TrEMBL record:
Residues 18-188 form the Glycosyltransferase subfamily 4-like N-terminal domain. Keywords: Transferase. It comes from the Bacteria. GO terms for molecular function: glycosyltransferase activity. Residues 197-346 form the Glycosyl transferase family domain. Pfam families: Glyco_transf_4, Glycos_transf_1. This is Glycosyltransferase involved in cell wall bisynthesis. GO terms for biological process: carbohydrate derivative metabolic process.
Amino acid sequence: MNVPSSHWVLHDYLQVNGGAERLVIALANGLPGFSLGVSGVYPAFRESGDCGAVRPQVIGAASLRMLPRIPRALAAFSRPPAHLREARQVIYSGLYAPLTALEQPRGRRLYYCHTPPRFAFDQRERYLARTPALARPALRLAIERYRHAYLHALQRMDRVLTNSLHVRERLLEHTGIAAEVVYPPIDTTGFRFLGQQGYYLSLGRLEPNKRVDRIVRAFLGMPDKQLVVASGGSQLEALKALANGAPNIRFAGWLDDDALAQLMGNAIAALYVPQDEDFGMSAVEAMAAGKPLIGVAEGGLRESVVDQRTGLLLPADPSAETIAEAVGRMSAERALGMRAACEARAAEFSRARFLDAFRSIIQ
């Protein structure tokens, strides 16, 4: 049985082995006395995630487990149990967990913002357009109620932190709050150079905003170059159909940390070309393994990748042809020559630096 704690890291849910999940796990493991609370732990995370010594506590009544992921999180954190309302210190993370701050009458409240909820701000009309016309008025009202609650919760925070200058600017524009930047923790010891086994590694989750389809198309035009597509997502079957059994393209699926470190450590270079990325922990993990990144000059990647020294930053919205040309320029020899610079750059984002920053904040 879990014993209620007075110090918490609260995050929406553990959905996949992604950057936000790894960050809150690093906090809960690295800050003595803190427990990790989430609204749910989902299959994709159970398959590949690693909580270390921390055992996540699921927040909310058992009856909520029948709900879809987002309504479940909203319900769990809008009406938290008594031990959360009486917490002495809470580090909030995500889009829905911060709503608990509205029910926390005392104690210290910190918020680590990975991104503000874009469906409630600059991308609201895009989300509404995807909804059947008859349902739009109700969804618009629900979004507006959530937006009001989110802004109210942020006003109750003692300090607001964020993962990049890029997200800081976005948060300031939407909420008027000037956050402090604390870059995410990278396991620079878990990723290391192992060699070069003749393939390039795609790191993005298989979702539309990660543009993995363009990487696959690029390699379809380069049958002499090998691509391994790590991760999973909603586009897995569509991307497999696009690859159409090409012998130079392999899909690895969701990977645990050890398997990902093996693939990363033996690649020539990594590819990651997401749209308007918040920060991009995968890019720094690649550099920690001594692998340059073929990325895109958008979002947070501009804060981690040093163009021409630790990788290649392509112009915004790159085509498959642009990606293929960059792969052609990133030979095994050139990639090897960037190894030392990559490792040195990644060390600037180490887990130790992240935890030192948080310890000074919470003391």
